[in-house]
Amino acid sequence: MDTQNDKNTLNFSPDTPSKCTWATGNDIKNSPHRHVQITPSEEKILPNILSQTRNTPIVRINKLNKDAKLKCELLAKCEYFNAGGSVKDRIGRRMIEDAEEKGLIKPGDVIIEPTAGNTGIGLALAACVKGYKCIFVMPEYMSMDKVNILHALGAEIVRSPNTTTLDSPDSDFGVAHRLQKEIANSIILNQFRNAENPLVHYDETAEEILQACDGKLDMFIACTGTGGTITGVGRKLKEKCPQCKVIGVRSEAIPGKLNEVEGLKRGFIPTTLDTSIIDKWYECSNKDSFICARRLISEEGLLCDDWMIDRKYLEKQVSTKNQKWREMKVSSLDLVYSPTLIASLSCYDCINIMEMKGLEQMPVLDEKGRVIGIATMGNMNAQLKAGKVNTSTPVSSVTYKQFKKITLDTTLSKLSSILDIDYFSIVINEQMQSSESNDVFCKQTIAIVKKIDLLRFIFKQQEAEALPIEGI
Ligand SMILES: Cc1ncc(COP(=O)(O)O)c(C=O)c1O
Asked: Among all residues, which ones are annotated catalytic?
């Protein structure tokens, strides 16, 4: 190694002979280099990665505060240093450990959770260390980046449609509850209601902040999803540092548009959010949030972005062992071909038809016989109850339209990736038939496939082969 750059030569070749005089056993005092003593950390070797889901660094912001002409010190708690990359790793660990302590779960059980993604990553991290399987229900608009990480951690994703009301059986909450009823030894830990969510922040996050600031803090600002962070930290601060103001940040609501800051606005007050602890609320636009995040990266070096995932490196790590099902065809599934509805029929007529036929969902066709999506009884009832439609509204207004058409020849692997994005897929089977008068015509049969149909098939397949359930 060179002890200094050779400024007088233009030779920048990376393999010039080293001029370093360092040798094993030499007294460090005579070292040609500058040495820095490190302070030993308390834990020498972490027992597993879950120990890396706390004690995140607090960093002083030096430029953004000056630009904003702030008179106070501005500090950032870098939760992205947690092993799974977000504050949600803390609740993933804590909710699983609590359920274990209460005897509610044992290794091998299935953890189901409706999640925007980061709680899923936190749960999946704890689940893979402790031996649980995970199924996460994510609305269709949530990003594929998170889906890819979740797959790499061995979790399965079920999509729910974007256009539902909260209490619809098709919402992420409704779908998660249906799955939990159908899957043996499964549990929903429910981040929106679980007391361990705010508690982990009360016990840990808040203590870390108070220790770093020697108990002196004027203001604590946090964004809110479940409200677990702000509630837990806020409650501890009100006890130990009562003059400290607690400021909640919500992302803006744009009517009719999806929020791009994932997971932060749901239009309801979660059980885990104690609004009485919050002194003032602010709304932050999507644009301002993203500009600030980029400035934190480029001006302060706080790399709060998903570099690895953006470049799809994590996608490549998905294991496909014990996954014979991937090569099998859609024709192997137990498909139930369905009668159809015409798009111009009223919701009233469609509910009657579904009741008569004992069906919960039916494909909807336009006037030319082309499939435009599916209508579900649950969504129609929820939309009627919420006053968003009336009984004479055409069914096309409550039809879920995000889907891909597949055939009996589509592989289950392809179907699985489609259902990583969409709530359902439609199988169209076209057969040429001839009538008694020898006229040849095309007969179309239609079936709806959802992730649960695929999961049931894979569970059965792997049980029959007595294989460990992997890559579902
Ligand atoms: C990265 C990240 N930070 C913060 C939050 C909000 O935290 P909380 O749910 O504790 O309010 C979320 C919510 O999903 C999140 O994903």
From this structure: 88
